[in-house]
Request: fold
Amino acid sequence: MATSCFADRLAKHVPLSDAEKKALARLEENPRKVKRGAMIQRVNETVTELFVLREGRVMSFVILPDGSRQILRVYFPGDFIGSASTIYSRAPESLVALSDTIVCPFDKHALRRLLDEYPRVAALLFLLSNAERVALTDRLASLGRTSARARVASFLLDIFDRLRVTDEGITDSFDLKLTQEEIGDAIGLTSVHVNRMIRQMEQEGLISRTNGRITLRDMGRLEEIGHYTNRHKDMDLDWLPQPG
Amino acid sequence: MATSCFADRLAKHVPLSDAEKKALARLEENPRKVKRGAMIQRVNETVTELFVLREGRVMSFVILPDGSRQILRVYFPGDFIGSASTIYSRAPESLVALSDTIVCPFDKHALRRLLDEYPRVAALLFLLSNAERVALTDRLASLGRTSARARVASFLLDIFDRLRVTDEGITDSFDLKLTQEEIGDAIGLTSVHVNRMIRQMEQEGLISRTNGRITLRDMGRLEEIGHYTNRHKDMDLDWLPQPG
DNA sequence: GTGGGGCGTTTTGCCATCGTAACAACAAGG
DNA sequence: CCTTGTTGTTACGATGGCAAAACGCCCCAC
Reply:
């Protein structure tokens, strides 16, 4: 059977039948290489495609009329991207590759057939979009009610924990692959202030850096500072119908 | 057939079969009255229930360790509430009634059966949760990258447009039913500053107020100020499977 | 009717946080 | 070598938070 990183991801939550895996793999039949910095989707463009991210990193963002940018979400391999085009005819957000990536585009009619034929997968997608929703509300609380310092801390922990979902090898350090300006645009700060906070945290021994690689030196305190909770531990999908 | 405000809401997007309507109506078999201010769900509590909001208003929020509150979402009749409990065993957010309300709780196993038997409804729920996701990213951009003035403007417009989805009678005024402190907690400001902005906007003739009722006097300028786009106009669910 | 009590709004003064602008240092890559 | 992009650093100032109090309003008890 063809491997599918999307099926692999979903299978981390619930067991999948072979038929389901095969159907999911079909979404990834048309892998497309995208160079770092290339646009995958432009805001307001008519969209009928969605994507599974197979390799590399992608971000979604919007540009406000005054030119400032808000990064909405950073995506990692196995993530399902562009779900907004299931319901809006024009893209509400832009997608750009943060590194050289491989995305697998598929038409929403392919998704339709999948949802139609594999109700259990439809339910699963619904559940996972609820998890995404919670991730967004967590960041909303972060932007709305916490200090710059707390936002940086929770942002680092969030990226760290998400990377660890798929990469077991990570223990305490990771490649952020984001400029400080991008971090700022994700958590509502300027690059200058992100820099202040990061250097401060480095001085205090909370983190350390060696050419772009971040090492978390005191996760306990970082969690406190960022008011961060790792949601991944608390998932429960056992109540879904069994496969078959 | 029993009326179901949830079915009515969904039917605004796509036609539903009688069987689907009936199945949706079953979710609302146990209406429960909730007094203004009463908790419907407490953060970190074990949850197995979800809700359809039939009447009144509800908000979801979290309290941070320093006591500050972030309001995550305000809900109106026909909204589907508490979707996080589909995937997390403990509630990531609290739910409280903003007015005297009627909610219809149902167990997630009832949802399971619905998703299982009516794949088209499952798909529809998935799509609508994607719309919710976009609503959240819009507010994320608002909190991360816009001024206090812009946040207030877009917040008012957002509530206004959401009320108008179900209540055709609304033309330019509505009952906000939120204190300025609550507005602030929703958009990341203090009540003091919300007050400053609202009075400023009133002085400029952008809005006017009479005992809690807001009238939007210049929606065009409000949309500009808030960098607001009404997403409701742009929905497209026609590609879903047909009923039957 | 009168006198609270509670709740929300209005108002003020002060000041911390964070943004703006500008530039230096440095690395990578053509 | 020059260009381009990222990080580091500073000075200055605006936005919006904080604390505190007054005000208006509604409801209730007396």
